[in-house]
Give the backbone structure.
Amino acid sequence: LDLMNEDFVSILLDLVEVDEGLPLHEEISDTSVRILPRLCVQFGPASNPVLGGLDRRFSAVFSEKTMLLLNREDALFPILLEFLTLVFASPDRGGRFLYTNDLRVLVEVLMRVLTDRAIDDPLRLAAARLTTAVLQNSEYMSDEPRPEHIQRVMRSIVEETSARLDPALRTEAEAIMLRVSEVSI
């Protein structure tokens, strides 16, 4: 990790966007997309070379491929949730990391995690925290005319009575409900 810096991240982003005419271009690109989130979560939000590299340079291909990976919910899924939470911690970065349609897909994936996962699944809290970051630091609420779905999902979490429900998840859901109701008034 000592060799990690924004220049190295820039090289990986170059590899994500490698020319389709090159041999093994897809493998090189996909491997780079899988490496960047893993590296990012090894650092905190301060002095994070991956976040710094993303601040310096937008990569539509990286964003799109990240969303494809997230939608699969494979073994990389928890890392992607953590990575995207770091990305959306900043309004500047969060506001430009995804295009509007990808932002909608992200929120739908998060709502699916919150409704479909077991009541004590820790990914539910990670999804709620990412939802909070997306609502605070992106244009989602200004572009989304109907936040009722988010309200419904959050209300169902708040109303869960199981002792296995993480109190932090309930608190996060209440905060999201408040945020959505404030914005949609």
Notes: DSSP finds eleven helices and no strands in the chain. The mean pLDDT is 90. The longest helix spans residues 167-184. The CA atoms of residues 160 and 170 lie 8 Å apart.
